[in-house]
Design a protein that fits this description.
This protein is of the alpha+beta class. The chain has helices at 2-13, 79-82, 99-119, 124-147, 328-331, 367-370, and strands at residues 44-46, 56-63, 66-68, 85-87, 152-163, 171-177, 184-195, 207-213, 219-226, 233-238, 249-256, 262-273, 280-292, 301-305, 311-322, 336-340, 343-348, 386-389, 397-405, 413-424. β8 and β9 (219-226) form a beta hairpin. The two termini are 29 Å apart.
Length: 425
């Protein structure tokens, strides 16, 4: 799981990588050359003894003044982690300390402290450090007690078969009881997909989604991806921002838009107890459209912002498709416009020009077809979650939010679009 979170964070941060198979931690010196992998211009690398060192990061303004790992992960850094960020450019990058060096340094510090205690010659600086260590240990013990132990895993499907036919078996749904509400540091959805190639093989890239039923008969899209051309795949989506709706018992459904062959899917939630990056007050579903065409533009959505909401963020997934497979809604750079109370506020351009990175993961496709730039998706990859802070335009009271996808081809164009509004305390 951590490997896929690392890969996802690097892709979203724009790390310079040849793909998941060749991804190595940034800032870690190669013993053979002494050189450290860099992230790219304007990028930072997380160094130090904090968790997941060697990850690329970008500065973001969505975490109350702190940093956030790559856009869309909703993972804020603590001050200690932010202090571990160092510029990582093609021209310069100081190597991060290795895990072994960090462990050795920690052991040396412990030995030094023990010797000083034994000799009763601890100076003022050592006393202060010991006091900080004691406070940290007490805080860690308290945190561990509050966290309530190991992560909670909720298995939705294990080896569930999805295929087309009569009756339609492209969707599997199940009512799931979620954990008792409490603080969770992270909530992730893990999705593994296996093809039935070569016996019942679907050689084409297909859209697959995971949805959650919420109150009022509405749905929230939890994950969207596009299957490889004839290969297995696995994806991880961070859903920490959906904590208020991942409660009680709700229906979870997985869907693959296939017309031939068969798939097996595994799906599970992992809830990690702890303090979340930001406390979510509520989640308001806005759009969840599977066939947004030139003639089916959904109506604007009325939302009520309660007094005291500290922040408002739109999270969305947009992908363009064409019935011809080559229409402009799939292979041209379209945009989507978001208005708030009738005033244009956002222009979203869900364009992907990095699909060439996924050629190796699509064994049954022409590499040139895989590498085509597309409207928000690549074969074998997760559809990335866009994040836009709209706090400045959503004061307490009623507001109207609307979205328009521009220039949809009336003959072949079709879009999948989902969006939720997240309010923070």
């Amino acid at each position: 799981m951590r490997r896929w979170l690392l890969v996802l964070g690097c892709w979203l941060a724009g790390c310079d990588s040849g793909g998941p198979a060749t991804l190595v931690p940034c800032g870690i010196a190669d013993p053979a050359t002494g050189e450290a992998r860099v992230c790219g211009d304007g990028q930072f690398c997380l160094c130090g003894s904090v968790r997941d060192s060697g990850r690329c990061a970008v500065p973001q303004g969505l975490c109350s003044g702190r940093y956030q790992f790559a856009t869309g992960t909703m993972e804020c850094l603590s001050p200690a982690q932010a202090a571990g960020l160092v510029p990582s450019t093609p021209t310069a990058h100081p190597a991060c300390p290795s895990r072994e060096d960090a462990d050795a340094e920690a052991e040396a510090d412990v030995a030094t402290d023990a010797e000083a205690d034994a000799e009763a010659e601890v100076d003022a600086e050592a006393d202060a450090e010991a006091e900080v260590d004691a406070d940290s240990s007490a805080e860690a013990d308290s945190s561990a007690e509050a966290d309530g132990g190991a992560p909670v895993e909720i298995v939705v499907f294990a080896g569930e078969e999805l295929r087309s036919g009569t009756p339609d078996r492209r969707t599997a749904a199940r009512d799931i009881g979620f954990p008792v509400p409490r603080p969770f540091e992270r909530i992730v959805l893990e999705y593994e997909l296996r093809t039935a190639c070569p016996v019942l093989c679907d050689p084409v890239a297909r859209v697959t989604t995971v949805r959650l039923d919420v109150d009022g008969g509405r749905t929230i899209e939890l994950l969207r991806a596009v299957t490889p051309f004839g290969a297995d795949a696995s994806w991880t989506e961070d859903l920490t921002y959906l904590a208020p709706v991942l409660r009680l018992t709700r229906r979870v459904a997985v869907f693959i838009d296939t017309t031939e062959g068969a798939y097996e899917v595994d799906l599970r939630f992992v809830f990690t107890p702890g303090t979340p990056p930001r406390e979510v007050r509520s989640v308001l579903p806005l759009f969840d459209e599977t066939a947004w065409t030139a003639t089916s533009d959904p109506a604007e959505q009325l939302v009520n912002i309660p007094f005291g909401a500290a922040g408002a963020v739109l999270l969305y997934r947009l992908t363009g498709h064409a019935t011809s497979g080559t229409g402009c809604d799939e292979t041209c750079a379209r945009t989507a416009s978001v208005t708030i109370d009738g005033v244009p506020r956002l222009e979203i351009a869900p364009w992907r020009d990095d699909c060439g990175d996924f050629v190796a993961g699509n064994p049954l496709a022409d590499p040139a077809v895989v590498a085509l730039a597309r409207s928000g998706w690549c074969p074998a990859d997760l559809v990335r979650t866009g994040v836009s802070d709209v706090s400045a335009w959503l004061t307490s009271g009623d507001h109207f939010i609307d979205m328009t996808i521009n220039d949809v081809d009336p003959a072949t164009g079709s879009w999948r679009a989902s969006m939720v509004l997240v309010l923070y305390r």
